[in-house]
From TrEMBL:
Keywords: Cell membrane, Membrane, Transmembrane, Transmembrane helix. It comes from Methylobacterium planeticum. Signal peptide: none annotated. This is Multiple resistance and pH regulation protein F. InterPro entries: MrpF/PhaF-like (IPR007208). It is found in: Cell membrane. GO terms for molecular function: monoatomic ion transmembrane transporter activity. The lineage of its organism: Bacteria, Pseudomonadati, Pseudomonadota, Alphaproteobacteria, Hyphomicrobiales. Its main location: membrane. One of its GO terms (cellular component) is plasma membrane.
Length: 83
């Protein structure tokens, strides 16, 4: 496994912790976990694109970056309005 693969594998435990915080935390913790999961997921996809030599994963990471902010804003509006 290349160094990129090891770097991607090193990001899996933090991603698991963020998912656990999003699953069991309070509303504020869930909101922060959603933001952090988007960031970790993006970096993970970039590392995997270099590890597997698939440039299409970089496009997926760019799409995730572009959709994380509007998704977070919609989640904040939902929290403010209905909870």
């Amino acid at each position: 496994m290349s160094a990129w693969g090891w770097a991607a594998a090193a990001l899996l435990p933090p991603l698991a912790l963020v998912i656990a915080a999003g699953w069991r935390g309070s509303l504020g913790q869930r909101f922060a976990a959603y933001q952090l999961a988007g960031s970790i997921g993006t970096i993970l996809l970039v590392f995997l694109s270099f590890a597997t030599d698939q440039p299409s994963l970089t496009d997926l990471a760019l799409t995730l970056v572009l959709l994380t902010l509007p998704g977070t804003l919609l989640f904040a509006v939902f929290l403010e309005r209905w909870l």
